[in-house]
Amino acid sequence: MSIQEVARRTGFSEPTLRYYERVGLIPRVPRDPSSRHRRYPMELVERLEALACLRASGLGIDDMRAYLLGVEHGDAERLVALFGEQVVRLDQEMAALQRRRRYVLSKVGLWQARVSDDPAAEAAATRETVQAAEELWGEF
C-alpha cells in the first residue's frame, strides 16, 4: 500500500508516517525496487491503525512506544497501568473542560441579563461568573 493510501486509511499525514518510521515507532518501510517509493505491508498498516486509535485517545509517542513494547512482551500489567494513567489524564481534561464550559455559560447568562435589562438576573449571573472564574484560576 502506498504512503498516500496509508495516510488516507489511518488519518496520519505523510510527514507523520515518515516521522514514525524515523523515530522507530514503526519498522523501516520496504521500498518498491523500481520506484523506491515506500510500500506498506498490511501488517504494518494494521499497526498504524492501532497507533491511530491510540493517538485519537490522547496518547503521545512515548506512550505509544510503551504500548507496543507491552504488547510485544505480553506485559498486560504494563498495559493496564498505561491505560489507567490515560483514564486519569482524560478525567482531568474533562474536568478542566467542564470548568471552562461553566465559565462560558455564566458569561452567556451575564450578557443575556444585560440584553434583557434585568438587574436581578445580572447580579446573579455576576456572582456565578465570579465563582466560575475562581474555579478557572485554580487551573493555572
From TrEMBL:
Pfam families assigned to the protein according to its UniProt record, in alphabetical order: MerR_1 (PF13411)
Keywords assigned: DNA-binding
InterPro entries in UniProt: DNA-bd_dom_put_sf, MerR-type_HTH_dom, MerR_fam
Domain (HTH merR-type) ranges: 1-70
Gene3D superfamilies to which the protein is assigned, alphabetical: 1.10.1660.10
GO molecular function, one term: DNA binding
Official protein name in the record: Transcriptional regulator, MerR family protein
